[in-house]
Structures are given as C-alpha cells and as structure tokens.
Give the backbone structure.
Amino acid sequence: GREAAATPGATRTVPFHGARQAGITTPAQDSLVFAALDVTTSRAGELADVLQRWSEAAATMATGAPVGGPGGLGGAADEPPLDTGEAHELPPANLTVTLGYGPSLFDGRFGLAGRRPAALEELPALPGEQLDPTRCGGDLCLQACADDPQVAFHAVRNLVRIGRGVVAVRWVQLGFGRTATTSAGQPTPRNLMGFKDGTANLRAEDTAGLDRHVWVGGEGAPAADQEWMRGGTYLVARRIRMLVEAWDRAPLGEQERVIGRAKVSGAPLTGTSEFDPPDLARTSATGEPVIDVAAHMRLAAPETNGGARILRRGYSYTDGLDLTTGQLDAGLFFICFGNDPASQFVAIQRRLGARDGLTEYLKHTGSAIFACPPGTAEGESWGQGLFT
Ligand SMILES: C=CC1=C(C)c2cc3[nH]c(cc4nc(cc5[nH]c(cc1n2)c(C)c5CCC(=O)O)C(CCC(=O)O)=C4C)c(C)c3C=C
Ligand SMILES: [Fe+2]
C-alpha cells in the first residue's frame, strides 16, 4: 500500500531515465493501466518518431508535469491543449511507463525482421487456457503503474493520443492492487484468493539474481543475440480469471494445501513465519509430503524447475460481472519478467497447468509477450537501439 517503506507517499517520483527501464525492478505501485497497441502505419520512420515523442512525454509525466511542460494545460483557445488535464494538481504518484515490442512488430512491415531476438516468440499453446483473441497479442505495449489510478490512466491516454494515426489500442487491462513485492522494503500484498503473494519473488536488491534471471546479457545469463536488447528483458502478461465462487466454497485446509502456505501468515506449511525457507522434502508421520505434491508453490519453485526464476509484478483486476454466468470476472493480471521465457514462464506454466491444484480454480483468458528494451539516457528515444 501507500505506506510501504519504499514508496512512503504519493508525492514520490521514479526517474524515467537510466540504464534500465523503470517499472520492472522499481517498487511495485498500487495501480496498473496496461495497453497493448498495434502499429497502423507501414512507415518505420513514423513509428520511430512516435517513440521519440513518447519518450519525451513519459519523462515529463514521470516528474508530475503535464505533457508539453507547464504550458501544456492551457494554450490557444482554438486548439486542444497538449495535455488532457486530468492529472493536474495530482502528485506524480511514482508513475512509471514501461515499453515493450511484441513479436508481430518484427514480421517485416518495418524492415525489422532481422532484428527479432530469438526469445521473442509467440507463446505456445499451454494447458488450462481459454484465450479470448481480443485480449491477446499486440505490436507494442505500454505498462503504466502509479500509486494513483488516475495518474496511470492519464499517462496511457496521453501517449495513445500522441500516437494517433500511427498506433491504435488493441486491448487494455486495468489493475488495482499489486500482487507482488519487488523490493525488500515493501510489505507483501494479498491477491484476490486472500493469500500473501510475492513472498518468494526476486527482488531489486538481489542484483546477482536479476542479472542471471531477468536482464538480457546479464552475468550468468545467456548472451544477448540482438545487441539492442542487452540490458532489457521479456515481459509475459496473462489475464488469469479466478473462479472466486468455487474458491470461496473451498475449506481453509484445502486452500492452504493447494497453495502450500498458511493463509493468514503466509508461512510455508513446513514453517511458522512468512519468510521461513520451505522444506519441500519433509514428510509427515504418515509419510505424506507436508507440502502437497500438487501445491502451487512446490510446482512453481526453482527447485522443481531446473533453477528457473522469474520476477513477478502482477495486479489484481476485476472487469465487473460475467453476464453469461452471473459470476464475478475477477482475478490476477499476471505480469512477469525474465531473460528466457521458454525456460522460465513457459516451462513453469506447463508444469502448473498440468498438475497444479490451483488450476481448477483458474482460467487463463488473455496472453501476450513483449521485449522490453533497456533504459534510455536523457535526450535519447525508447526506439534508439532498435531503429538505429
Ligand atoms: C507461470 C508462472 C506463474 C503463474 C501463472 C502463477 C499464477 C498464480 N499464482 C498465484 C498465487 C501464488 N503464487 C505463489 C508463488 C509463486 N508463483 C509463481 C509462478 C506463477 N504463479 C512462482 C515462481 C512462485 C514462487 C515459488 C517459490 O519460489 O516458492 C504464491 C506463494 C507466495 C509467493 O511466493 O509469492 C501464491 C499465493 C495465483 C493466485 C495465481 C493465478 C491467479
Ligand atoms: Fe504463483
């Protein structure tokens, strides 16, 4: 929440410029507006130009200033103002905007076919998914996070406006409430199943772990096959609906067995407090594993996945009522970052989809993958590496 040590007040700012893009290892904020976009022009130069203008606008908005600077709110009476205005007098709220490129951007329309990193492939079909094509894919993504939902919305709205005629929104997902912790100072939030989420996540302070598992070309990671992606990472997004009515009828013991942790404390079932290391090998007096063979945390753990780890940075969502069933459409908009999606997200999700006890309470309804380039220096464009 807002009282988190790493984000003590909504007046805080997160620098836009730097070696890494903000919004990945920077402390997870409270609200998300995630937009997937398609490029509607066939001219690469127009796209590069939008990326330049987006970079300037995102850097400006991250300081809490309106698009176009202080004058952006007003101007000539016969012209629309440069900034749409709804974030005026709101604090910057730790706004971050993170850009990603989808695999379809490299299909040849913009002369980029030779620049696609091998890891940026459409995700394969996975168990437990019932994907809605209107919530999948995209040539580009903009992930806006802030501690005020109006600040996050304002950022996406203004960037979409700048891109008019060159890009068009394909789908949007709003998220309320972070479901991950990305730095040591942050308290662990709860997801809509009522469990602490993010306990065993990678954290900003674990720079060796991030190099190995998150940053492309990091120390201990596979080498970058495309120079422009060095220092970047891959984002996988999954809209995961929770069948909350079924979950809410499951007894507490069943819920804890399915996750592998205690609901109130977040402790592993082999421990007593949240950060106790789980003992996956421990058996009870009757010889049964204490952490169930189908427990989510066992099947997602690095020990079960050849050491694979991911940085989770998802949000709870609700899109109101599903009119076809009369049930709540709510769940987790899962976002994770990693430098090798095939051996990380895809491998873990294959295992989860096939055996995880949580799967019967979930339905994956949206999916996308994006390559997030490294950060930009002052005066540089997001598109600098890819387009030059
Ligand atoms: C493919 C990756 C994962 C998906 C999809 C996923 C969905 C999902 N997870 C929860 C709730 C929890 N997950 C927890 C831990 C956890 N989950 C993943 C991966 C995916 N989860 C990993 C890698 C881990 C860490 C495993 C470990 O190293 O121990 C937990 C436990 C607390 C924690 O460590 O965060 C919860 C709770 C839901 C509800 C969900 C889909 C809606
Ligand atoms: Fe999980």
Residues 1-8 have pLDDT under 50 and may be disordered. Residues 296, 300 surround fe (ii) ion (ligand 2) (CB under 6 Å). The longest helix spans residues 44-62. The helical segments are 44-62, 149-162, 207-213, 244-249, 252-259, 296-300, 342-355, 384-387.
